[in-house]
Amino acid sequence: xxxxxxxxxxxxxxxxxxxxxxxxxxxxxxxxxxxxxxxxxxxxxxxxxxxxxxxxxxxxxxxxxxxxxxxxxxxxxxxxxxxxxxxxxxxxxxxxxxxxxxxxxxxxxxxxxxxxxxxxxxxxxxxxxxxxxxxxxxxxxxxxxxxxxxxxxxxxxxxxxxxxxxxxxxxxxxxxxxxxxxxxxxxxxxxxxxxxxxxxxxxxxxxxxxxxxxxxxxxxxxxxxxxxxxxxxxxxxxxxxxxxxxxxx
Amino acid sequence: xxxxxxxxxxxxxxxxxxxxxxxxxxxxxxxxxxxxxxxxxxxxxxxxxxxxxxxxxxxxxxxxxxxxx
Lengths: 249, 69
Fold this sequence. Notes:
The complex is a heterodimer of chains A (249) and B (69). Chain A is mostly helical. Chain A has 13 helices and two strands, in the order H-E-E-H-H-H-H-H-H-H-H-H-H-H-H. Helix content of chain A is 79%, strand content 2%. In chain A, helix 3 (24-55) runs antiparallel to helix 10 (156-185), helix 4 (60-74) runs antiparallel to helix 8 and helix 8 (115-139) crosses helix 10 (156-185). By secondary structure, chain B is mainly alpha-helical. Chain B has a domain at 23-69. The N and C termini of chain B lie far apart (61 Å).
């Protein structure tokens, strides 16, 4: 891929990168992808943090069942997932018709085939992954610490502020970078939902390889390399912030 | 106790969000017709029967990279 991205019919060239970086359409794809990925990752992370907190209060056997369920739904992605959301929220989806019947216009006018719909689907496939990554991190916080803190007179809020969150922070940041990369690389569900109407990087690459007009694998490779660079940058940033917080502790 | 109830409700909503699309897909597999109604108009095994009579699908399901059997 790296080699292909530096080639054209004449041999070595940087023209592919030049055309990526000067093409407003592709840059907009990057912007859309990054926005969608960051927002879906943040929402999934916050929801999962509370969910894991709620989950730890269940019995171990119940937790086991929940993990099985999360595992199952984490494999429910791509085109089947887009189909399921169309059944529920599409033009004549279950909830669309239900809200229409009840006369709740704000919900019945919701369009699944837009940014909002994409965000819902992205959050859907982020949630199980976030839950599976955060569960062991949360599990690492031991009951004894809470008891010790309580014995020393700390409130629950103080415990989370001074001990709980700082201990979990590296894991949370790491989870965020995994979620971000997960969303950046997602293709099938977004394509199934909006075909190529919504401009995302993965969809740009796909259309350049398949050749909606004509195939340009070299340009696609250059975009893919830049996509990989974005993900690696996000990973390095999270590593850097983790090492920085570790030093502060 | 009140706090506990809120946490449970929150988790229930999350579980619903995760399970509903799976259930909807399952229901669609058994629906006779589900175009303009909130729930399917009827239930049927027709689609499953069609699926398992389709040679191409069976071939894909039991596809063996080492050769056909």
